[in-house]
């Protein structure tokens, strides 16, 4: 594993600076998306990782439009508090992508700027 990873703006961040690793899993029998952590703090750097393969996260607007897509293990720093709904797309090892039937919510604290 590399000691640094590129982030969306082209800079690199050290993996040691990741505050929260958010692990997502999907149960095809119940269609449930499971999240190991649902609340994080503003200013923290997070990354999403699939429990049994790769995951792709797409945050949605209140109007149902796709907004920001975050790839598996892509570090992102949280700068604005609030509740953020997202859809999950899972690619099991050796398999094809599965769209989660339900999404999840990330609660970034505090909600006020």
What report would you give on this structure?
- The chain has 113 residues and is mainly β.
- 0% of the residues lie in helices and 54% in strands.
Distance between the termini: 35 Å
Mean pLDDT: 85
Major β-sheet profile: 6 strands, mixed
Low-confidence stretches: 1-13
How helix-rich are the residues, as a percent range?
Answer: under 10%
Radius of gyration, rounded?
14 Å
Name the structural class.
Answer: mainly beta
For the structure shown, list the relevant keywords.
six-stranded mixed beta sheet, four-stranded mixed beta sheet, disordered N terminus
In short, what is this structure?
The chain is an all-beta fold. It has strands at residues 4-6, 12-14, 20-27, 32-35, 39-41, 45-50, 53-60, 66-70, 76-77, 82-92, 98-99, 104-109.
Strand and helix map with partners:
Blueprint: E1 4-6, E2 12-14, E3 20-27, E4 32-35, E5 39-41, E6 45-50, E7 53-60, E8 66-70, E9 76-77, E10 82-92, E11 98-99, E12 104-109
Parallel strand pairs: 3-6, 5-12
Antiparallel strand pairs: 1-2, 3-4, 6-9, 7-8, 7-10, 10-11, 10-12
